[in-house]
Design a protein that fits this description.
- By secondary structure, the protein is of the alpha+beta class.
- It is built from 13 helices and 20 strands.
- The protein has 2 domains: 258 residues, FAD/NAD(P)-binding domain; 150 residues, no CATH class.
- The strands form 5 sheets. Strands 1, 2, 7, 8, 9, 10 and 19 form a 7-stranded mixed sheet that branches.
- Helix 1 links the parallel strand 1 and strand 2.
- Helix 1 runs parallel beside helix 5 and helix 1 runs parallel beside helix 13.
- The longest helix has 18 residues.
- It is elongated and about 85 Å long.
- The model has no long low-confidence stretch (mean pLDDT 96).
- The protein binds flavin-adenine dinucleotide.
- The site of flavin-adenine dinucleotide (FAD) has 38 residues, from helix 1, helix 2, strand 8, helix 6 and helix 13.
- The site of flavin-adenine dinucleotide has 38 residues, from helix 1, helix 2, strand 8, helix 6 and helix 13.
Length: 423
Amino acid sequence: MTDNFDVIVVGAGASGLAAAVEASRAGASVLVLEKNHVPGRKILSTGAGKCNLSNTRVTPAAYHGASAAFLRKVFAALPPEQILSFFEGIGLLWTEGEAGKLFPRSMKAQDVVNVLLNELSSLAVPLRTLTEAVSVERAAGGFVVEAQRVPPQWEKKGRRGEREAFRATRVVLAAGGPCYPQIGGTSGGYELLRRLGHTVTPLSPSLAPLKARCEYLKELDGIRLQAAVTLLAEGRKLARSEGELLFTAYGVSGPVALDLSRAALAALKKGPAALEADLFPDYGARELYSLLHGRAEAFAQRPFSHFACGLHNWKVLKACAARCGIDWQAPVFRAGEAKMEELGLLLKAFPMELAGTLGFEDAMVAAGGCPVSEVDPATFASRRVEGLFVTGELLDADGDSGGFNLHLAWTSGILAGRAAARK
Ligand SMILES: Cc1cc2nc3c(=O)[nH]c(=O)nc-3n(C[C@H](O)[C@H](O)[C@H](O)COP(=O)(O)OP(=O)(O)OC[C@H]3O[C@@H](n4cnc5c(N)ncnc54)[C@H](O)[C@@H]3O)c2cc1C
């Protein structure tokens, strides 16, 4: 293999694979370096293995960190629906789920990685795994990228640290962020950026599960339900999210919790904050009360457990009943009107004290990174280093849950790959 390329892509993740495909299609000689033993490892874990690869409702409002003006220019350069054309063009059919979420038709993240790798293989693009770029330096006519061999975990006597230098006219930095280090997430890419003269704003976990305090969490651990959760501080409602909520022993997770995590961290920096979960979001308060009241009359002589059975998740009802002082085994009429009303209020506003968020190990994406003002929105070319392109999570632009982060990763990769291939 020659060690001189038009384009070197650092990182075979979402944005790097897309960049490599587009740069090679545009006629550039491309080399992809990947430190993991498999490419696209993080993609395989997305959407719980189904890969929520984009969304039909992509707008600047779904993103944080980057300005709306920057994102409008990005989506003008590559209209969001063209991501689907890109995937169709490499053989991937897709399907739409709830809330505009887009998935591969097979519902398998592995197929998303495979179509990208098949395309790179048919373009004869070399992809070096277990090869970490440890330095990217400007040199006459472009860059020198120094790479180090990463011994695989199973190779006890691996040739550690063997180094190799590659030259390229342009470099696409697509090294991703620090989330899920257990599958290769790293902040090493930010270090490469800093050394090249870019700014890196402080990183924090975003789309992370929330730690909460509530005496019933252990009993509720593992329950998934539809809920609307409100974030509160000093009696004010700061944010609200509706959808699937997962109770865990440490707090709450699921899309609803993840979407609140950014606001939750910001609120906790200022003081105490709380969560209130509406566990009957499809019922108004009055509607719920008349449902409970009618049911209480119908089940008056029967144990409260019979009243609860079939109404909602019984563990949730048992926890709420305990909190209201309702005896689970006693006949329903003993609870009385006041306790039944209290139960209704609790189901509409189940309180939890917010204790923080989990860290990068459990977060989907990092907030912070290279400010988008340092790249061109139409090409993702660095405004500081000629010939350098910065894509994906390295940028300070994180999206809501629902496919928005991968969408921006593909978009930035495609635009950067095309531009990097231009002579
Ligand atoms: C569990 C989980 C689930 C998620 N689910 C979704 C979802 O359903 N929908 C969605 O939109 N987003 C989801 N995300 C977020 C999404 O995966 C990321 O936003 C996206 O992968 C970022 O793309 P990227 O190209 O910037 O980085 P990555 O896809 O992380 O790729 C970066 C690659 O660079 C490699 N690398 C790093 N440093 C070097 C180096 N120095 N040399 C060589 N290689 C290097 C890494 O090993 C990695 O393979 C999820 C994230 C996680 C952790």
